Amino acid sequence: MKWCLALLAALLANHVRAEVPKELADFVQKADKAYEWKSNGKIETPGSTVYNLTMTSQTWHETTWKHDIQIFVPKGAKPRATMLLYNTGGAPSPTNAIFGLAISERVKAPVAFLYGIPKQPIFDLKEDGLIAETFTKYLATEDATWPLLFPMVKSVVRAMDTLQAFANEEWKTDVSGFVVTGASKRGWTTWLTAATGDKRVKAIIPMVIDTVNFKAQMPHQLKSYGAYSDQIKDYVDRGLLDPKMPENPKSQKLWAMVDPWSYRENLTLPKVIINATNDPYWTQDALNLYWDDLRGPKWVLYVPNAGHGLEQIQTDGKKDRDRVMNTMAAAARWFIEGKTPPVMTWKIGDGTSFEFTVDGGKDCKEIRFWDAKSTTRDFRKSKWEQRGTVSSELTTWTHQFAALETKYKAVFAECEYDLDGLKYSLSTQIRILEPAKK
User: Fold this and answer.
1) Torsion angles phi and psi, residue 361, rounded to 5
2) Radius of gyration of the chain from Cα atoms?
3) Structural domain that includes position 196
4) Which among 181, 126, 143, 117 is positioned nearest to 257, based on CA atoms?
């Protein structure tokens, strides 16, 4: 009997592996003679050193992808075996330099910024318009090299090659691992970079790309908003989000290739997901459609009163990205310095009234909870308010939430931690309560 069960388990495991799309890894692993890089020197400031590199990652459908790479090294920081790699669009600028230096100072180690993800414009299109256009080209040709996410991922992989070579030449240091991060479609790229199976990716920090498990997300968005978000109009206008999509084998294949959920069995590396409570792209509780499916260590941060740009609006009206930068930096340091990440757990009951229990672990300094109200399930313009604080003397917090009479209510809790003076937060999932009287 035991051997029968073992055989069944093996067959099921092989079946799961067979379902993982191979096209992404095949595309990324294919050599490209266009790849090259060079150093363009460095800039010394009183508090840091900034190295400037240029890289050609590939030639994709007769278009050459060239990138700038900047490495920010705060004063006194030494190269480490693991490096934070932030992939983004555009090019180096004073604003990006300020952001890069701020992150590197918090990380206390060299941090690399890869620009030009994706190469654009192509076909006179940019951003989501360009990605959507390449999706339609795949549907017309079934050529798996067309989805733009594939060359975007390949650029990140080539950047890891470049940074390893640079570190050996400049610092005589072997960089063997990377914590990869990026926001929006660059967050999508972050997920898929890990999905290639590249062992150099030690952890990922995908930001504001709360659309994993695509087949479940789109119907949920229609149910929550009554229509698709205007922010994904480029995909809607091309018929890529037609409700009949699941009946179309080519569409099924396309979305399977670019949906991180398809690779979930192999994505066992640590994941720190960063979302914004007022992101106009996705539903506020989108995480709940894939959180339980994720394997391996995982954490989440919700930035309250922040949109897709992750700028939190404070009570005095000022905006900042401190919350996201602190958590990103703390998470990077877990893996760069070999720190032990905090263990945070929670349990949320069901129904219009439920008990919410959070255990922040022994390192939690404070537990807070946030809520917002709305006349519908659409919380994109709702104000989130902090409702309570539990001191570090009590690491476990339990609260009974009751539905409002006529409004929807969304809630989540967060724990605050301290890493050598760097204060950062981690969150629970968001739960939406239906009105008591509909």
Assistant:
1) 85, 175
2) 22
3) 23-342
4) 143
**Cβ-based neighbours of 306, under 8 Å, separated by 6 or more:** 276, 277, 278, 279, 312, 313, 323, 324
Contact, 63 vs 157, CB < 8 A? no
**What separation, in Å, do the N-terminal and C-terminal C-alpha atoms of the chain show?**
53
Residue 233 placed within a domain: yes
Spell out the residues 6+ positions from residue 317 whose beta carbon is closer than 8 angstroms to its own.
Answer: none
- Tell me which residues of the chain have a pLDDT lower than 70: 1-18, 244-247, 391-394, 438
Q: How does pLDDT run across 334-362, given as a tens digit for each residue?
A: 999 999 999 999 998 877 778 889 999 88
The CA-atom distances, in angstroms, between 246 and each of 130, 216, 243, 291, 408 are 23, 11, 7, 22, 30
Which H or E run includes 190?
A: helix 185-195
Whether 415 is covered by a domain: the verdict is: no
CA–CA dist 226, 90 (Å, integer): 34
Q: Which helix (H) or strand (E) holds 205?
A: strand 201-207
137 found inside a domain = yes
SS3 219: helix
Count of other CB atoms within 10 angstroms of residue 351: 11
The bridge status of strand 271-276 relative to strand 201-207 is parallel
Statement: the pTM of the whole predicted model exceeds 0.85: yes
Please report whether residue 59 resides in a domain: yes
CATH for 92: 3.40.50.1820
Q: Are 282 and 211 in contact (CB under 8 A)?
A: yes
Distance (Å, rounded) from C-alpha 295 to C-alpha 267?
6
Q: Which residue has the tokens 């470049």?
A: 162
Answer whether the bond into residue 121 is a cis peptide, omega within 30°. Answer: yes
Domain count, the chain: 1
Cβ within 8 Å of residue 231, ≥6 positions away = 280, 281, 308
Q: Identify any residues that bridge with 25 across adjacent strands, giving them in sequence order.
A: none
Provide the β-strand partners of residue 49. 44, 73
